[in-house]
Amino acid sequence: MKQVAEQKIRRLQAVYGVFHALRRDRRGVGAVEFAIVAPLLIMTYLGAFELSVGFTVAGKTARAASAVADVVAQQSEVNKAFLTNVSNVAKSILEPYGNVNYTLKITGIEVSGTNEGTVIWSRDQAGGVPYTVNSKVTLPGQFTANKSFVIRTELTVPHELMLYAPSLQATSKTIDLSKTAYFHSRLAQSIKCTDC
Questions:
Q1: Among residues 72, 142, 150, which one has the least CA distance to residue 118?
Q2: How far, in Å, CA of 108 to CA of 44, rounded?
Q3: Inter-axis angle of helices 29-73 and 87-94, to 10 degrees?
Q4: 19, 28, 102, 135: which has the highest count of C-beta atoms within 10 A?
């Protein structure tokens, strides 16, 4: 019986010695730390990349909406062909991130009262009429002057997330980046659309 107890004690000491030796051994610590930290660093890098691309596309969306409104505001009159072709301005600014499914609405608004206007004409990038003529719209606070004409452009660009991870509970891999720009007419009291 004493021998059996001594054997158990020796086995326990051997097991304890192995665990004690493992605890003192530091050879694999760097590999374990790398295995823990590397995925976090990679996710941080890729997330920062995705954010920078998103901010770039958002900036290009804002510049494209403003540029289109500015070009139209410099005209004394427009027509369907001009309004259809002016969408190429937005397309060229959005390159190389441009999406063929973007939505561009250009609206001529006659300001009739404080922050209130009437739609005179409107066109979208597909040649449709997004707003009915003579419908009332509300304008931002800086448009308080009566008897003025405002060009409003609304640009929406669907931005596809390149690093979409469905396991992270994201509901969509595409987000819509949009910008609305307003410009007063420059050359005429009212910009007429001859064939809208």
A1: 150
A2: 45
A3: 160
A4: 102
> Could you tell me the residue ranges of all domains in the chain?
24-193
Distance, in Å, from the CA atom of 62 to the CA atom of 177, rounded to the nearest integer, reads 9
Average pLDDT of every residue of the chain: 84
Identify residue 57 by its one-letter amino acid code: V
Cα 56 from Cα 82, distance rounded (Å) = 28
Contacts of 166 (CB under 8 A, 6+ apart): 173
Paired sense of beta strands 192-193 and 77-78, if any: parallel
Q: Tell me how far CA of residue 49 lies from CA of 42, 44, 105, 161, 187, in angstroms.
A: 11, 9, 30, 11, 43
pLDDT average, residue stretch 31-50: 88
What local confidence, expressed as pLDDT, does residue 144 receive?
66
Peptide bond into 96 cis (omega under 30): yes
